[in-house]
Amino acid sequence: MADGRVTTRSLDKAPPYDEATAAAIALTVKSVLRSTTLAPAAERTHRAEATTGTGTGVELEVGGGVSRSNVGTMEGRGDLGMSLWPTRVWGLGLRLSGGPGAEVSTPLLDGTLVNLGAALTARARVPSGRVSLTFELGPALQAVRLSATLRDLGSPVSVPRIDPAVEGGAAFDVELGARTRVGVRALGNVLVRSQRFLIAGREALVLEPLALQGALRFSVRLD
User: Which listed residue, of 34, 94, 153, 196, carries a Cα 20 to 30 Å from 143's Cα?
Assistant: First the structure.
């Protein structure tokens, strides 16, 4: 059959068969065909449909994990995304991410760096049965705000900034059902240019170019 399996049934006698035996044989053959792609789409059973759980369409995903931020400290982050898959292999994804902020401490100030990100990535998926490996790469923007207190003056400062970046990563997913998957993801975010914060003419903070994140994610196919 289409899935590589063969079904057999023992018969008590050789043909020609009586009406009852012939009807039983026909019913057996029809039942087997309904569980394969050989049958018309309207007559296929759920088992054949379940093999295409990772397919084309639109997917929603939510995730959460831990990130090593651009200031070298750890931060919890969550994300919400959507991806479009014109084919089983190639897709396009949009992801929004954020967290409470990473702690910052320098000789000049103490505070928090809050980073809200958005990334638009091209994606390639390698499916194998109920598991799949997905790679992604594309441009990103980071809306950054440094909120801190100057050590020598004790006065608060708040500096907003928009930073361009490139984001890429990979995810390993396992299908829970025909439309749902759960997996783990690793991401890297690289700033396009060096980012320095100057306060009163003094260099208060320099961001590291690379931020890394590991996360769990859950996705649902809508169509």
Answer: 153
Q: What is the pLDDT of residues 187-217, one digit of tens each?
A: 999 999 988 988 878 888 999 999 999 999 9
Tell me the residue range of the domain where 6 lies. 1-51
Same domain, 4 and 107: no
pTM exceeding the 0.85 threshold for the entire prediction: no
Query: Rounded to an integer, what distance in angstroms lies between the CA atom of residue 40 and that of residue 33?
Result: 9
Per-residue pLDDT at 51: 45
CATH label of the domain that carries residue 73: 2.40.160.20
Asked if the peptide bond before residue 16 counts as cis, ω within 30 degrees of 0, the response is: yes
